Amino acid sequence: MIKGKVYDNHVHSYFSADSEMLIIDAVKAAAVKGLSGICITDHMDLVQPTHNRDFTFNIYDQQKAINRIISNLSSKDNDFNLPTKDFHLLRGIEVGLQDISKEQNQKLLQENNFDLVIFSQHFMEGTDPYHGHYYNRYDWKQAYENYLITLYNNSKELGDFDIIGHFDYIVRYSPWEKGIAYRDFSDIFDEIFKYLIDNLKTFEINTKTYQYYNGKEPILDINIIKRYKELGGEFISLGSDAHTPDRLGDKFPKYLSLLYNNGIKNTVSYINRQPVVNPIII
Length: 282
Hints:
Helix 4 (140-158) links the parallel strand 4 and strand 5 (163-164). The protein starts with 6 loop residues before the first strand and ends with a strand. The chain has eight helices and nine strands. It is α/β, with parallel strands linked by helices. Helix 4 (140-158) packs parallel to helix 6 (186-198). The chain is 32% helix and 18% strand. The protein has a nine-stranded mixed sheet, covered by helices on one side.
């Protein structure tokens, strides 16, 4: 069971093209696991490769569905009988970064209200690494370095976000055993961390990366967290990137302990784009 006040800030509902999860099923699963809240951050990639699925959604319809459940949760006679008191369901979005969609993304964020905005780099050079084609062009170090630099440049260029999502997305689907280590990309990691810290934005540990897939199970390099802390990082966001109820809060106790034991004493959630600091309890 998860201890303390912990939020899963990275959850996908049936409004994402790659998920069929009902929002109420996500709420129930999260509450049973001891989470204090979740944020529904469905995919919004406004420009995408022609071979990809349509990773956009109707924001009005998504927030209407979320608001309906929020209203029920807040009523005395709610339908859920949740084991966690005062469970919070939050409205979010995961914006896919590309330089060619910069103006569209800016307009979207100006015209809509969210509790949380995650920026993620899903597409590289006209393809999603998920399909494998990107890796054919480079060795492991070039492939990872290009990704980190692109993530940093696009995040800084657009700017209007709260959390930088799954920095290690590029590792999930790579053909190499090699993961991302701080020592191999120290300069770009330092630039990312300094930007986040100076601009009061948050680094994410996304536990979906650290599961068995395609013959390997990536491992988080703890030196990444240690360096983030050394540069002044005080808290981190946890996200399961769940697309099914069973993965809500996946591996959170493990990574909460890892953070705590390496000097990170708080996680963060967001309400109305404002950070809420939550002490880690082990």
